[in-house]
């Protein structure tokens, strides 16, 4: 275990290196207070704790609740499209959840990568920042008095750094339940499908008529026909959602004066099969937008065990989906970098107003500064790419525009691995000086040396 020591902020790396003890284990716990306070609760930290203070700060922002923020405007837009269709809207869930809610109840296997400390922010061994809105499915199934519900919330994942990834983002979960005991149940399902507003979207779906097979099976407690009808209801609901959002994106781009050819093409989506621990069969929708397929939303028929875990009776069945809001809001509002959502600069925030899809007008593009960092990893290193991302973010905050692993090789004689990351530092709001970047960059280097046994090359 690493001992705490006080080091001046900027020391020469060489002198630091010579003083360092050799260790290979990660030593997170030394950096965290004994208790973390969040939303009125206190969490005792332990060897699982890995949520840095700047991430805890983000939990206070609640961008989806701000009616004048692009994320809040998008949430409103989707809610307004579904307002009379039998859904309850939940927007107030706090971000700390248990591992039971986020994983166990949903049937995540023990070795699922989502559970690892390199992917997820843990408050401690039992509590984490939710990695998806599905963590609240169970309480909503129990609480909800309408056939369906939507949950919108901020979610957190340790992730790479680039213009479309940020450790905090937003998801909207949708779900819908029926009872098999409904008189003429299958006819009712057909009626419910017919009541979903029609769209003129072009749909590619190779498995619409036969959505289940051994690789993506039907659950035993429903018939083939029921699985097919529920899948169609799910897919048409998502197609309606996607249609509304992307048609709005198209209109706003045209209003902003864009004449790009994609704006006149009909909207095209395709369904691909997917796998989630708590749905079967499972699907994903991709939207053809600006010449590429955009992954949009995972979904499926909810496993009966999840419904039973939530306290529902065994006649219940239904679907769920989860859609990421940030990438879509970037398209809708023409926002080039996901960090802008978190900007407190009025030149950003004053551009958006409740109910309006305005195209973002960049106030300036400040130049970035590239810095490389190359090091040898010790033989038994547990350094994960996301750890490097985390150290960069901890010191650079939103000045980290991107971090890319640009080179990696293994020395033929020593067997040691070398990695080189390129960090682009860039501010959305101002010009950066070389001096301030040097200070930040050496903190990142020092931290990597301190916490992992790397030797800077
Ligand atoms: N929670 C999943 C995700 O984050 C999406 C999902 C929601 C999939 C509901 C199936 C059902 O990717």
TrEMBL record:
InterPro entries: aa-tRNA-synth_II, aa-tRNA-synth_II/BPL/LPL, Fdx_antiC-bd, Fdx_antiC-bd_sf, Phe-tRNA-synth_IIc_mito, Phenylalanyl-tRNA_Synthase. Its EC number is 6.1.1.20. Pfam families: FDX-ACB (PF03147), tRNA-synt_2d (PF01409). GO terms for biological process: mitochondrial phenylalanyl-tRNA aminoacylation. It is found in: Mitochondrion matrix. Its main location: mitochondrion. The keyword Cytoplasm does not apply. Residues 153-362 form the Aminoacyl-transfer RNA synthetases class-II family profile domain. Is responsible for the charging of tRNA(Phe) with phenylalanine in mitochondrial translation. This is Phenylalanine--tRNA ligase, mitochondrial.
């Amino acid at each position: 275990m690493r001992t705490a020591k006080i080091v001046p902020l900027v020391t020469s790396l060489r002198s630091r290196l010579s003083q360092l003890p050799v260790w290979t284990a990660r030593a997170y716990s030394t950096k965290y207070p004994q208790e973390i306070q969040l939303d009125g609760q206190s969490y005792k930290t332990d060897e699982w704790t890995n949520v840095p203070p700047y991430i805890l700060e983000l939990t206070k922002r609640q961008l989806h609740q701000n009616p004048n923020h692009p994320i809040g405007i998008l949430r409103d837009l989707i809610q307004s499209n579904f307002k009379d269709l039998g859904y309850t809207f939940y927007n107030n869930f706090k971000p700390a959840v248990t591992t039971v809610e986020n994983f166990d109840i949903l049937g995540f296997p023990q070795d699922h990568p989502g559970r690892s400390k390199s992917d997820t922010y843990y408050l401690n061994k039992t509590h984490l920042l939710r990695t998806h809105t599905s963590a609240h499915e169970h309480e909503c199934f129990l609480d909800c008095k309408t056939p369906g519900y939507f949950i919108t919330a901020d979610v957190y994942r340790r992730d790479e750094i680039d213009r479309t990834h940020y450790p905090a983002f937003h998801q909207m979960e949708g779900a819908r339940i029926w009872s098999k005991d409904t008189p003429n149940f299958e006819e009712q399902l057909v009626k419910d499908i017919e009541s979903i507003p029609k769209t003129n979207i072009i749909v590619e779906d190779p498995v619409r008529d036969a959505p289940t097979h051994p690789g993506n099976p039907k659950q035993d407690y429903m018939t083939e026909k029921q699985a097919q009808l529920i899948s169609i209801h799910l897919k048409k609901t998502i197609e309606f959602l996607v249609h509304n959002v992307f048609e709005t994106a198209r209109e706003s781009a045209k209003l902003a004066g864009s004449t790009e050819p994609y704006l006149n093409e009909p909207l095209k989506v395709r369904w691909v099969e997917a796998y989630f621990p708590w749905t079967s069969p499972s699907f994903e929708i991709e939207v053809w937008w600006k010449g590429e397929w955009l992954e949009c939303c995972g979904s499926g028929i909810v496993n009966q065990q999840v419904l039973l875990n939530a306290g529902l009776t065994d006649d219940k069945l239904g679907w769920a989906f989860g859609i990421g809001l940030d990438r879509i809001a970037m398209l809708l509002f023409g926002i080039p970098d996901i960090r802008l959502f978190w900007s407190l600069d009025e030149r950003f925030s004053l551009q958006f107003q409740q109910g309006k899809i305005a195209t973002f007008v960049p106030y300036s593009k400040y130049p970035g500064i590239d810095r490389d960092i190359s090091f040898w990893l010790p033989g038994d290193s547990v350094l994960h790419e996301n750890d490097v991302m985390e150290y960069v973010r901890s010191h650079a905050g939103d000045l980290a525009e991107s971090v890319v692993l640009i080179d990696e090789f293994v020395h033929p004689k020593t067997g040691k691995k070398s990695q080189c990351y390129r960090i682009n530092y860039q501010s959305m709001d101002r010009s950066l000086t070389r001096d301030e970047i040097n200070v930040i960059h050496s903190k990142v280097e020092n931290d990597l040396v301190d916490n992992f046994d790397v030797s800077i090359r």
